[in-house]
Amino acid sequence: MKFLSKRVCDYTSFHSDLDSTKHGRSSGGVSLFIHNSLATHVQFYQFHSSRILSVDLFFKGNVKLRIFVVYIPPTNDLVLRYEVIDQLISLISQTSSQNFHYAICGDFNMNLEKFYPIFLHQLQVAAKRIHKLFHYLLSHNYEDCTPLNLSSTLGTYHHLDTITRIDFVWSCPLLRRYMLTSTIFNAYDLHISDHNLIITYFDASLLSDAIKSAHAHQLCQQWTAFAIDLDKLCPIDPLVFDAWPLNQKCEYLHSRIIKAAKSQLPSITVGNTYALKKPKYLESLCQSYRFLSKVAKTIRSLHKNPTLYSVSFESKWSSYYIRLNQLLFSYKQIFVTPIVLPPSLRDE
């Protein structure tokens, strides 16, 4: 994995150390790759053993996300297997009391499909030590999203002719409501591993919901502080206040409300660069009025002094003529008698 991490430049990797003790057959070693756009949110990571790694990400709105990566040893070493399971249950039990959204992912070396019938119909057997981890997760409302393309020919683990699903992404009760779907990426033909990838999708509203909730909580606190401060600023006896004229009451309350608001509520200074805009229909009417005034001024000028007439006026009138007819058509419902304009000033 450390070899791979040097070649995946868009991701930041976190690793646990390998186990150098007597458990040589299962040396462990787990890794987590986080895209660099999210890696900046990593606040803390810890490998609790060579087989359990946790990474904490903190987001706005006091959203805390913890990702556990685990490797449960196979059944050929039950002592080590139970040791890792007990440690994992202890860690997720502690995490559940710390207001984290968290997921547990990795190679569990357990077949969930075989355990489901036992959990549903043989409660005493399901509670036995051999099933301890799955029993704990299902009993505490954790959820693994069954991949959409899971089938008898596509699982997460291939060995000889055996195809099973022993790799999982479990979501805690807080996180599971944001879980959308899951699918298996078939890497068998790539010959890079006997395991396939599980891709689980979560709704991004996990972050926005928490921010909205945090803002609402903050606003509630601000309004409470505002109300307390306002009460302190209004120590007047109710009987005295009731005897005041209405204007005096309004001035008294207005001044104290403003003072309390400035002290406790957030404020934004708005500049005076805003330009008032007319409605489109009113702006169009104003433009038409200015145009008609311009045409009327030209015609009055010619009536007073006909000697000013020239070819340039005919050119102006030709452009006026087109626009005037457009206006007449737009307002034709207003005019009772149809208006016919001369095509040239000579005709006038």
From TrEMBL:
Domain Endonuclease/exonuclease/phosphatase span(s) in chain numbering: 65-199
Pfam families associated with the record: Exo_endo_phos_2
Protein known as: Endonuclease/exonuclease/phosphatase domain-containing protein
Organism of origin: Rhizophagus irregularis (strain DAOM 197198w)
InterPro entries: Endo/exonu/phosph_ase_sf (IPR036691), Endo/exonuclease/phosphatase (IPR005135)
GO molecular function, one term: catalytic activity
